[in-house]
Amino acid sequence: MKHNIVFAFSALALAASLSACQDQAGGGAAGGARDQIRAVGSSTVYPFATAVAEQFVQANAGMKSPIIESTGTGAGMKLFCAGVGAQHPDIENASRRMKKSEFEQCVANGVKEIVEIQVGVDGLAFAEAKNGPGFQLTPELIYKALAANPFGKSANTAQTWADVDPSLPKVAISVFGPPSTSGTRDSLAELILEKGCQTDPAMKELKEKDEKAYKAACTRIREDGKYVDSGENDNLIVQKLAANPNSLGIFGYSYLEENRASLKDVPLNGVEATYDNVASGKYPGARPLYIYVKKAHVPVIPGLQQYVAEFAKSWEPGGPLAKRGMVAASDAARAKSAEAAKTLPVMDGSYLK
């Protein structure tokens, strides 16, 4: 009985805290916390989060459908880390791991109990129209085509892919990809551009000497129109490829999988973006997908833990999320994530970069 009283008091205190934060910000009705889950973040994770939301509603009669916003991972992190309270999101969907700087911003704003859960794996897919040139690319070739200042030298003057390498088609460089606020853009930088940049040994030395100069040389994308930021709507990139058959598109693997009738894969290092290649890590663009949960919100936002648990019921190979295009993580990773979804361990951020 005593434990029940303590728990009830703690829950009331948390509810009061959330309501106070809400009232101070002038959001929502005064006197109570939200009765609807809110998630922000990655456009890549968005279709999976909405699929889980549908299952959550079906499994929990009377619960309102969660609000899922496709803001991009970076923009979502800013919203998520802005504070604790009903006016702030409960969940951040992310197509890359939280950065150390983001974690520190969270803590500075009072978001000190964050739960990290890997929900699956995705591939950073490169695609072209069915009637496209038939690109065969490597991280080095992509870097040379898109870098603002390849290997830290003069501005990029390559106009066609043949200018990058004579073996490539003599068509204008035209790439539709994610904006700077997107986790997919961060993955492009880390998994592809940096790998291409590091083919020059001098760049590895530069990283040790001057991290800022290295990042500028290896991850800054040209801004002369060859690369077009296409917002957080990856379906728009799919449409643009159909209208521009000589162009290249960059988005999450699930969007390639859903549109194979109109698109074809562009292999990287001769490896195609298939389910098995992404799952095994053989594909160069493979990356983990995450959700971050605000633990302080769990006792007071109705259904929040049940929604998180619904992810764990859906990420098995051949499960509902796999049917939507998500690649299942390894057995060990799924077991760890299932335990995290159940116990909600708080991350300490020591391993973040």
Tell me what you see in this structure.
By secondary structure, the chain is α/β, with parallel strands linked by helices. The chain has two domains: 2-122 and 288-343, D-Maltodextrin-Binding Protein, domain 2; 123-286, Periplasmic binding protein-like II (D-Maltodextrin-Binding Protein, domain 2), CATH 3.40.190. Helices cover 42% and strands 14% of the residues. It has helices at residues 2-25, 46-59, 73-80, 100-108, 139-146, 161-164, 183-197, 201-209, 211-219, 234-243, 253-258, 275-280, 304-312, 320-323, 331-343, and strands at residues 38-41, 67-68, 91-94, 114-129, 175-177, 227-229, 248-252, 263-265, 286-294. Strands 1, 2, 3, 4, 5, 6, 7, 8 and 9 form a nine-stranded mixed sheet that branches. α2 (46-59) links the parallel β1 and β2 (67-68). α5 (139-146) crosses α7 (183-197) and α8 crosses α9 (211-219). Mean pLDDT is 90; it is low at 1-32.
Record keyword descriptors for this entry:
15 helices; 353 residues; 2 domains; D-Maltodextrin-Binding Protein, domain 2; 9 strands; disordered N terminus; alpha/beta; 42% helix; 9-stranded mixed beta sheet
